[in-house]
């Protein structure tokens, strides 16, 4: 049912998104939009990110948890970039994310030397969290978090670098965005 006080939408703009849910800002030109890809990306993007967090948290029991989780999250951002262009990228600068990831990984790797243990020594942490109950984890999850942030930052930086050239070429050719 439509609101009688609302003015009618012109036919050319009937499929334009009107809500800011998972939107990148400006929409692409109508000739370059793939509505099915955009809708699928809106549904898959948060799901893939949650799956990457799952891989990050359980990956320290197997090899490559932070790296694999970072690649999965990076693929989610690649999908979002393909569907929405450069406007769909995250607002954080990729070099800042890379620097944060390197800092977290380096500090986590060197932290055991403070207590006289070798570099990259891991230990088990057990906590009683009020709402969750008894929680156990390894300190290697912090190193995996640093690697995760580093890989996501590198993927976003690659998207920014490669995508800028593609968009510049499209702009020079006079194609609408």
TrEMBL record:
Superkingdom of origin organism: Bacteria
Membrane topology category: Multi-pass membrane protein
Keywords: Cell membrane, Membrane, Transmembrane, Transmembrane helix
Keyword Transmembrane: yes
Domain Na+/H+ antiporter MnhB subunit-related protein: 37-156
Subcellular location: Cell membrane
Pfam families, A to Z: MnhB
Residues that span the membrane, as ranges: 43-61, 67-83, 95-120, 140-159
Family: Belongs to the CPA3 antiporters (TC 2.A.63) subunit B family.
Protein name (Swiss-Prot/TrEMBL): Na+/H+ antiporter MnhB subunit-related protein domain-containing protein
Organism: Pseudonocardia adelaidensis
């Amino acid at each position: 049912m439509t609101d009688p006080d609302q003015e009618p939408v012109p036919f050319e703009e009937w499929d334009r998104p009107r809500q800011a849910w998972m939107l990148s800002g400006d929409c692409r030109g109508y000739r370059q939009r793939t509505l099915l890809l955009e809708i699928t990306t809106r549904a898959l993007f948060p799901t893939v990110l949650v799956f990457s967090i799952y891989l990050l948290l359980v990956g320290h029991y197997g090899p490559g948890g932070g790296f694999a989780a970072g690649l999965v999250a990076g693929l989610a951002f690649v999908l979002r970039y393909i569907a929405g262009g450069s406007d769909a990228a995250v607002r954080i600068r990729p070099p800042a994310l890379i620097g944060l990831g390197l800092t977290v990984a380096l500090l986590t790797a060197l932290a055991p030397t403070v207590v006289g243990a070798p570099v990259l020594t891991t230990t088990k942490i057990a906590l009683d969290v009020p709402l969750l109950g008894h929680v156990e984890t390894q300190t290697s999850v912090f190193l995996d978090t640093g690697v995760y942030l580093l890989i996501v930052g590198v993927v976003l930086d690659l998207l920014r670098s490669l995508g800028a050239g593609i968009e510049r070429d499209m702009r020079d050719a006079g194609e609408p965005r």
